[in-house]
Amino acid sequence: MLSNKKSIAVLSTLLLSAFSFNSTAKATSAELLLIPDAGEQSARVQLKIDFSQLKRATALDIARQYQQLKPLLSELINQTNQAVSLHDLSKSAGKLDLTEFNQFKREVIKAKGLPANTEGLVELRLADESMLSTFNQGVAPLFTFEPAGDESQWQYIEAFDSNGNSHLLEIDKMPTRPVFVIDINAKTDMKVGIAQMKAIFAAYRNGTALSKQVVTAEAPTTSASTTLETSVLKTISLKDDHEPWISGSAEVYGVVTGIDASRADPILDVVEMPYLDHDGTTYYPNQIVIYWERYRWNAADMILMEHDDNTNYQELAIKLAETAAAIMAIIPDPTVQGLSVLGKLTAELIKAMPEDWFVNNDDYVDVFYTLLKNSTYTNYYGASANAKITLQPLVLSQ
Q: 364 and 357 in contact (C-beta within 8 Å)?
């Protein structure tokens, strides 16, 4: 018989293999909430989509219109605001041709299965705050986009001037000239994406898809106890990985994995971390991330993920939920295997992620295995040493 700790390790491993799915067709959000069986998997959207060519076309188009755009940028770009949304650009209707920009937005919405009325999704942002001074001095900017693929394979960053001329910028050297980036707004994309994940997880929880207990990170609504035992995230920091200057701020979220306390079903909790913007900075959120009433063996794992423009959150949520259910289905008796089941679940989720998710930490950030109830973790590193947390028990009165 396996020990309890070995059993939780099994469950975590299996969950991380869930991300290998990469279909090529598309489906509507309504179709995605009706979780199809294996024979219907080809009808789903892709888990990863490449928007680099759309961004390039938009960057070139906007660059050529800089003289018309200049007054609006001068008005809106300042110390507290370094990005302009497509909605803001549209205020210059009649002056700017936003055909390419609108096409970029439509393709993002279509590929990700987002609501058609999603606002603030695509933007034009100043690459770095240090460029604000030269921009305000009247130095004509360049317009660029983040290249496709692994950043270690990038040879240069292409940018365009107002005449449409191409400039090849160094990857690791901050340009002295101001540069604007055509991009997807990470906060908006992740906020809408996590809402999608919660809706899909709720569908699983309520039996719309599978009868598995996959939930969002909210306090349990009913309990016979007068207290609620939790773990609170006191501090968190990500390793400074010296990403290229073109990369925007990080947008990170967590997925807490465990086994239901009352039956042999998996639980997935989504934990939003909107404050976690920059690598190499320590944050003090004082945020509850685990509600122990839900978890068997008083143990859970936590995976940290980073926003990626190319991720389809609907498909990500489905893959998480389906894998968790499939893993539990092949384990004869989780109560016998004990804690090792959790480790299998999380590790299989990681194992199944596409290889490129591990190259520059754009998606998978780190994983914390076997976090225990009533335990304090001080300056505690994840398995990949990319994240460091301080986690403390907290008992709340109900």
A: yes
Q: For residues 132 and 77, is the Cβ–Cβ distance under 8 A?
A: yes
Residue type, 156: Y
| 127 neighbors 176 (Cβ within 8 angstroms) | no
CA distances to 145, 186, 380 from 386, rounded to whole Å, are 26, 20, 11
CA dist 239 and 220 (Å) reads 33
Give the separation between CA 319 and CA 313, rounded to whole angstroms: 10
Whole-number Å distance between alpha carbons of 148 and 156: 11
Q: Is 142:177 a contact under the CB 8 Å cutoff?
A: yes
Give residue 8's pLDDT band: very low, low, confident or very high (50, 70, 90): very low
Helix (H) or strand (E) holding 206: none
pLDDT per position as a tens digit, 99-135:
999 999 999 998 888 888 888 999 999 999 999 999 9
Count Cβ atoms below 10 Å from residue 182 Cβ, excluding itself.
Answer: 26
- For residue 202, the tally of other CB atoms under 10 A from its CB is 15
Q: Are 300 and 290 in contact (CB under 8 A)?
A: yes
Sheet holding 364-372, edge to edge: 266-273, 252-259, 299-306, 364-372
pLDDT per position as a tens digit, 348-395: 555 555 454 434 434 788 999 999 999 999 999 999 999 999 999 999
Distance CA 51, CA 56 (A): 9
Q: Does residue 34 contact residue 322 with C-beta atoms inside 8 Å?
A: no
Lowest-confidence segment of 68-72, 170-174, 305-309 by average pLDDT: 305-309
Beta carbons of 31 and 43 less than 8 angstroms apart:
yes
Structure tokens of 267? 């639980």
Gyration radius of the chain's alpha carbons = 22
The backbone torsions φ and ψ at residue 190, rounded to the nearest 5 degrees and listed phi first, read -70, -35
Six-digit token pair at 376?
A: 């304090």
Query: Which token pair is 170?
Result: 């160094």
CA separation for the pair 110, 128 (Å, rounded): 29
Calculated CA dihedral for residues 275, 281, 282, 287, nearest 10 degrees: 10
Residue 232 contacts residue 302 (beta carbons within 8 Å): no
Q: Which of 23, 198, 33 is nearest to 113 (CA)?
A: 33
